[in-house]
Each structure stands twice: as C-alpha cells, then as structure tokens.
Specification:
single chain, about 700 residues, alpha+beta, Helix Hairpins, D-amino Acid Aminotransferase, Chain A, domain 1, OB fold (Dihydrolipoamide Acetyltransferase, E2P), 5 domains, 25 helices, about 35% helix, globular, binds adenosine monophosphate, binds zinc ion
Length: about 700
Amino acid sequence: MQIQRSLFDDFENNDNVAEQPVKKEQPTGDEARIIELRDLLNHHNHNYYVLNQPTISDQEFDRLMRELQDLEAAHPEMADPLSPTQRVGSDLSHGFEQVLHERPMMSLGNSYSIEEVQDFLRRAKDGLGGEQVEIVGEMKYDGTSISVIYENGRLVRAVTRGDGVRGDDVTANVITIRSIPLQLPQDLDYPSRFEVRGEILMPWASFERLNKERAFNEEPLFANPRNAAAGTLKLQNSAEVARRGLDAYFYFLLGDNLPFSTHTEAMEAIKSWGFKVAHTETLESIDAVSDFIERWDKDRKSLPVATDGLVFKLNSMRQWRNLGATAKSPRWAIAYKFAPERECTKLKSVSYEVGRTGVITPVANLEPVLLSGTIVKRASLHNEDIIRQLDIHDGDMLYVEKGGEIIPKIVGVDIKQREPNSQPIKFVTHCPVCGTPLQRIEGEAAWVCPNKWECKPQITGRIEHFVARHAMNIDGIGEEVAVQLHESGLVNNIADLYDLTIEKLVSLDRFQLKSAQRIMRGIEQSRQVPFERVIFALSIQFVGETTAKVLARNVHNIDRLMEMSAEELAAIPEIGPKIAQSIVEYFAVESNRDIVERLRWAGLQMALSEEELANRTTKLEGKKIVISGVFQHHSREEYKAMIEQNGGKNVGSISKATSFVLAGDNMGPAKLEKAKKLGIDIINEDQFLSMLDSE
Ligand code: AMP
Ligand code: ZN
C-alpha cells in the first residue's frame, strides 16, 4: 500500500534548503521582491498570531500583502501554494483524500484523581525497571487533533486523526490557519523532514462570533468550540475556514533520528521554529503535580481556548521508546480530566424517545439550569436500570453534570429535598409513538418497541442512519427531511430513496430545487460507497461500523452474508453470538431481503471490490505480529497494512501470545531482550516478504 503524497509534491524539490543548496541564479527585481515579501509577511504573521506581539500596524501588514498579491498576479510562474497570500483559502470544493498516518495517532489513557496519576507514574517506573522519571505537565486542549508534516521547512501535508491509522488530508484548510507556519525561516536548523502534532482549536472569541452569526442566519448553533473546530476543519470551502479564525497549539514532535532527548527540548525547538506550543512545565514531585492540577483547574477558565484537562508526560524520549504503547495509548503519557461542573435542578417530567432500532430512551425534562456556560433543559436517563439505580422519583431534585462538556448527565438525587409522597418513576409499558407493548431483550437493559416496520421514529431513524456520513454519506437529509419524506409517503424504507427524483422532491412542501439537487447528487455518489459501509448502513441491530468492516472482510459479499447461519457467523473472530443472531434475524425478514434486492438493483456495492479481494490472503491468519526497528524495503505502515491484508494482526508489544517479531535494523533493546526471553521468533524483512510470496 502506498502512502499518499501531498498535494504539494510538485513543489517539494524547489528549495532543498536544508539538504543541499541548489544553485539558482540570483533572483532580481520582482522575483527578489516576491521572495522578500513572503519572508517578511511570514515573519509578521508569526509575531501577530503566535507571539501576540505585532511590530507593524494592520494597515502596514495589509499594504505588504497587497503588494505581494499584485506581484504574484503579474508573475504566475512564481505561484506557490504556501505563499502568505494563500492563507485566505479558496472556495473551490474538493473532497478529502484519506491518508495513512506514518505513525498511528493514538489516544491517551484517562485519570480523574491525583491517585490515578500516581498509579500511572508507578506503572511507568516499574515498566522502566525502577528508573527515575521526570514529569511534564501540559494543558489538554479541547479541539481536534492534527498531524502536520514538514519537508525542508515547508508544510507538505496536514491530516486529521481519523481512526488513528488513517485520516483526512485537510491541508488546504490547515494552511489558512494563521498561527501555523507554512514555510519555516530558512536560516534555522530543523530536521529535513519532521511531523508535528497538535490540536486545532476554535478560540472562545471566534466561537462566540460564529454562533452569533449562525443564530442571526437561523442556522444550527455549535454545541462547543470542539465541535465547531472539527466541523470547520472538514468544510469543503477553505475560504470559509479562513474566515472562521481557527488556531492551533502543538504538543508533539516526531521524526527519524531527532536530535532531542527530552520532550521539553523538542517543544522549545519547535517553538523557536515558529510553532505555537502547548504550555509545558516540568514538575519535580508529585506535590508539584498536585499543585499544577489545582492551579490550572482555576486558571484554565481565563485561557483564550477550551481545555478539558491536563496531560502528564514523561520527559525522556528514551523512556517513551522503552515503555511503548498499549493498543490504544502510549504508556508514557496520561490525560487528567477535570472534575465536571455540577448543578442541582428539578425534574419536571420524563419523556421517552424511540430510536431507529426501536430502543426506548427515557429523557429527563429539567427546570433549565446553567452548566459550564450552556443552559441544560434535558438529559438522557439511558434506560430503566439507571432510573432504578438512581432511585429517581417524580419531582426530585437531580444533580446534573457535564462530562465531556457537551452531554449533560444525571448523576444523583438530593433525597433531602424529596416531596414526602412522591412516587418512583414508572417506566412506560407501551411505545409512546405507536402504542405497541414494549419488549425487553434478554440480557439487555433496554426496552424495545417491536413494531419495526410501522413505528414512525424507527422508519425515519433508519433513513437518517442510512444517509449518515459514516454510512452512505448522502448530504441534505437531516431529521426533519427524513420525517417529511416519510410523511409524504415518498420514502418508507431505505430502498425508496433510490426511487426519488428531483421532481418528486421539489413537489414537497417548502422544498428548494437546490436542496433537491444536493440530495440527488448524494444518492448518485452513494452507489460508489464501499461494501462495508453498505452493511453498516442497513441498520442491523448491534452491527456498528467496526463489525460491518469485520463482516465485509470475512464474508466478501451480501449473498453469502444473507445465507450464513448464526453458527457460521459466530465462528468469525470478533463476531459474538448476539451479533450473529441479530444478523440472521434481520435477513429472515422478507421485507429486508426485498430491500437488499432493490438496493442491489439501484447499483450499490454489494461485495468487496476486485481490488480489495485480490490483495487479501489468509497467510497470516490468527498471527499476532510485532513490528520493530527500521526497514529498507517498505515503511512500517506498509508492513502493517500487509499484515492486515494477509489476515494477521499487528500488535504493539511482545507477550507470550506474539507469533513473531518482524524486525528491521536497530530493534529496540528492551523488545529484543523480551522476545529472546519468551523464545519468540524474530524474522527479518526478506524472510517476511518471502513468507508472503510463497504459496
Ligand atoms: P482523548 O481524545 O480524550 O483520548 O485524548 C487524547 C487527545 O488529546 C489527543 O489525541 C490530542 O488530540 C488531545 N490533546 C490535547 N492536548 C494535548 C497535549 N498537550 N498532549 C497530548 N495530547 C493532547
Ligand atoms: Zn413503536
């Protein structure tokens, strides 16, 4: 598998500054002025957006910018996508290409108390055979993570975290963020290639301005700056991104053979190269950690950007390498989440919502209360068991918390304030929408309305799920439109979507031609959506995105999936009996089989593509493989992809269960020793490749 290259590849060799200066003729006249202006504007940009210390007036800045724009217009041969004039973005729309990360982007383990941080430090020390550790504390910025690659001082690619292995190439949007350097000053000493990771944020001020505008335009508001930042970064219009005023703080430097041995050194370095970095402090003792937490829990409220906690990291990069990572997060860093804000408010009533799979969710309607900056009126009670556990009575005073700052959660009852005769909440026995008696699935906390094919919210819920971004990605059908399509009789099930026409859509009440065209375009494009997402889109109970992927990879086509017995399905690794049963039940319903046939007829992908099939083998079936060291023929990521394509699993650390280690040069000494101790085979690149070549 090829790692996607950047959209700036063409420019990559133009200034090979750090490596070997290419002999160019001395630029003269306009050409020289363009270069000078670019440097000058980059410099003032850094003063303004990173250091917050402008040294020239806005008017002067604008004048220089205009001069550069004019000169560039007169010299198209000098165009450069990283010129400061390009910060304004473009309104050309472009989809996002998916790119493999060179190194996976992991998440962080969480802790909620100083004791848990202490446990983390103890585990780290143990893992290092009792070595001393130095701790650094940082803000945990609450935005959306980004990986940015620089080659010879030029930004070449910016990719979102995505699923950690693969993300969206959002370079065009990222270059509009003023505080991110596009071209590092040429006289500095940075590696010829490196990656920085950080958080893209929407500062409170931009967030408030944006929501005010949206309220004025009667557009839906963003719940918090994190959603606003993530939403903005995925816009198809970089001019709009530029306008929204994003910012970015960086907190990791990665690369081959970096000349730093500690995290703080690396952060100092990237700061000197022009990046805005996370506030980092070295903490000498656990008491210092404790003080740091206490101080920042207060002080963070006056920061210009949202934070949802702190991050503690070991400072030594050698220790990072020695500790490695679990499947999800590094062992040398941990997030500390601030205690959420809590309020007490009165329960007015409980209402019940019906989801697309018929699951009934109880919702508490509350006396409005202000919590972490927003007014809370409703909170999910999840299921009957939770209502019982909390022992909620009618009219109780409830404690409400906001965890991840968005979704309010009921965490308890103030019994002292309970009315003497109030009764415990009684869960509904019948569907609040269609009146059907509810059923409880064995082993599950949820009550379900079994009237799958006629209960309205289930029908519209499935339509909404089908069109969702991670499913068929058909734009323009939100909740309201789904209900409208259903109520007008046009769409009773997902297959009916493919009978829609522009004429039918515009015949609906208040339906604009533009919206109709957008929907039809989405429907057209959905025919190319890969098989695994089609499986996910069907709304088979318990079949989420990951399960759908597993099914596609193992079953290859829909016909086979429809035929398989529960036993056969449950024999697939990662598919449990509950999922297997649910799949069989889904396809046992005649109308579901009809829907599948109609979707096939409509041209949806009902099998893995030839290409996906061709590359897959079972040569490494069931093998757990650790990759370590530096390779000659392929990158680590390519080896990882090969392992997966051949049915194996790439795991992070060596254990008794490891099948073998695929080792390149300079395998980590700790890993080598562990493999030897456990008697695990070490296989080199050539051996591995011939293993895949053999029959
Ligand atoms: P979580 O998404 O809760 O697992 O937390 C991990 C995420 O925290 C990372 O992927 C980063 O996007 C984000 N983050 C914010 N600030 C920092 C920081 N100072 N160091 C590391 N990660 C950070
Ligand atoms: Zn119902």
